[in-house]
Amino acid sequence: MQKFETEQIEQRLADFSDWSMTGQKIQRTFSFDDFVGAMEFVNQVAGLAERLQHHPDIMIRYSKVTLTLSTHDAGGVTEKDFGFAREVDLIVGVQSGA
User: What's the CA gap between 77 and 98, in Å, rounded?
Assistant: First the structure.
């Protein structure tokens, strides 16, 4: 899978308002009411990751969860990452374009 150049990532991010670029990765932080809500979300993301065979970096800070995506085999962000981001946004009820 072909990795996107910085300009391509920035253009695609226009359809993913809560996601941002950090280096050659895309990232979003989600906030929940409490730790249990955050962990329920992480479990949903884990199921998605297994289904899609695409595993994000996950940082948990009590009620906040940060997901960082890149396609390691491609060495950067690919369509696979934006597809995963779209699925995660659907989990939390956000419609993403693309």
Answer: 15
What pTM was estimated for this model as a whole? Answer: 0.92
- Supply the DSSP symbol for 76: B
> Whole-angstrom Cα distance, residue 13 to residue 97?
9
Q: How many CA atoms does the CB half-sphere of 51 hold within 13 Å?
A: 10
Domain architecture of the chain: domains with CATH? 6-91 (3.30.1360.20)
Residues 56, 83 contacting (CB under 8 angstroms): no
Helical residues (DSSP H) of the chain, grouped into ranges:
6-13, 35-52, 79-91
Specify the pLDDT at position 69: 98
